[in-house]
Amino acid sequence: MGNQPTLDPKLTAVLARLCKRRGTLTKTQAAKLPYLVDVVAQHVLGRRITAASHQNWRWGVVAAEVWHSVKPGTGIQPFFSIVEMPYSEGSVQISLLKEPAKVLEPEEAEIVDFVADEFGALDYGKLGKLTKAMNLEVTDWGSNTPAKIDEDAYIRLMGRWDTIFSRLELCNTEDESNWQELTGASVEELRKSLGV
Amino acid sequence: MSRRIFSCSATWKDRKFQKDFAGLSPQAQEEFLRELLALNAWLEKTPHPATDPQLRQAYRAKSYKGVVVLRSGNLIEYSLGNLARVIAKYPAREGSGDILLIAVTLSHDHERLKRLIKSNRSEIDDWDGE
């Protein structure tokens, strides 16, 4: 008891690079973007970069260690400024104070930069939907079950299945005026239906 | 049994898919469309689009509940090779045997990742099986 949560050096380095690339991160971004980093790394390098516990929490996948560490006065303070935003319902912003030891290989750093550039602007709601769309198999959101870090997760991430599901939620799939019949379709009819 | 196949207009015609499709060679485009057509034909005849063992094996069909709030039915995911996925809703409407195709996605490796993948190719699984 009483021990501060600690982050492994790679996870600290990933967070530092994300902060450097984005300027500041919200607590949600700090807890969810490392998951995307590890999914992309698993595809590209065949291995994860961090040893984070990516878990299926109520609002999407969260690196539990990061969530527990990002508190003013605790955990990852030596390297990061952790500031509670006033009048913002407890929102916390994280920025880089000093760089931790350089432990990322060049290819790892490139993956972190890619995730920062492609997904770093997504807010907490979009990151929640994105990480949930990557884990379709999960039925018990709000648990500490491990999130998927495999090709399924990668394909759903890069295919932005969250945006498909967002549009699906706005659409009444029961309304047959939204349907187009493809029974016995030819290649040309298929092309036309897809607009290609 | 013959099942009717429909697509959902609001989600089926998708700009990201169109962009990804345009990135394929003409030959790969034709091959992809033929595979999609074959899935379509299979879905028309299968006893069940989620539980048919042959379909599950051929397209790695998997059924999901809970991710998207649907008034009825489940989402089913089909794999066309390792790069393309088809998302469908079954049944299309309550009490019917029809199926509604929701979306098709193609997964390209981003240009920024291709070089990394190439340099690490010896270390990673040959995930597209080619």
Biggest interface pair, residues each? A-B, 53 and 67 residues
Query: Given this structure, which CATH class of chain B is correct?
Result: Alpha Beta
Any low-confidence stretches of chain B, pLDDT <50, length ≥5?
A: none
Distance between the termini of chain B: 36 Å
Largest sheet of chain B: 5 strands, mixed
CATH structural architecture of chain B:
2-Layer Sandwich
Shape of chain B: globular
What portion of residues of chain A belong to β-strands? 5-15%
Helix content of chain B: 25-40%
If you average the pLDDT of chain A, what whole number results?
Answer: 91
Strand content of chain B: 15-25%
Uncertain segments of chain A: none
Number of helices of chain A: 8
CATH fold category name of chain B: YaeB-like fold
Mean pLDDT of chain B: 87
Q: How would you portray this structure in words?
A:
- The complex is a heterodimer of chains A (196) and B (130).
- Chain A is an alpha+beta fold.
- Chain A has one domain (9-194).
- Chain A is 45% helix and 12% strand.
- Chain A has eight helices and six strands.
- Chain A has helices spanning 9-22, 27-45, 64-69, 106-119, 124-133, 151-158, 161-170, 187-194; strands spanning 24-26, 54-57, 60-63, 80-84, 92-96, 179-181.
- In chain A, strands 1-5-4 form a three-stranded antiparallel sheet.
- In chain A, helix 1 packs across helix 2 (27-45).
- The longest helix of chain A has 19 residues, at 27-45.
- Chain A is elongated and about 65 Å long.
- The model of chain A has no long low-confidence stretch (mean pLDDT 91).
- By secondary structure, chain B is α+β, with helices and mostly antiparallel strands.
- Chain B has a single domain (5-119), classed as 2-Layer Sandwich (YaeB-like fold).
- Helix content of chain B is 37%, strand content 22%.
- Chain B has five helices and five strands, in the order E-H-H-H-H-E-E-E-E-H.
- Chain B has helices spanning 9-12, 15-22, 26-45, 53-59, 111-119; strands at residues 5-8, 62-64, 74-80, 84-90, 99-106.
- Chain B has a five-stranded mixed sheet.
- In chain B, a hairpin with an 8-residue loop joins strand 4 (84-90) and strand 5 (99-106).
- Chain B is globular, with a radius of gyration of 16 Å.
- The mean pLDDT of chain B is 87.
- The chains are: A alpha+beta (196), B alpha+beta (130).
- At the A-B interface, helix 2, helix 4, helix 6, helix 7 and strand 6 of A face strand 1, helix 1, helix 2, helix 3 and strand 4 of B.
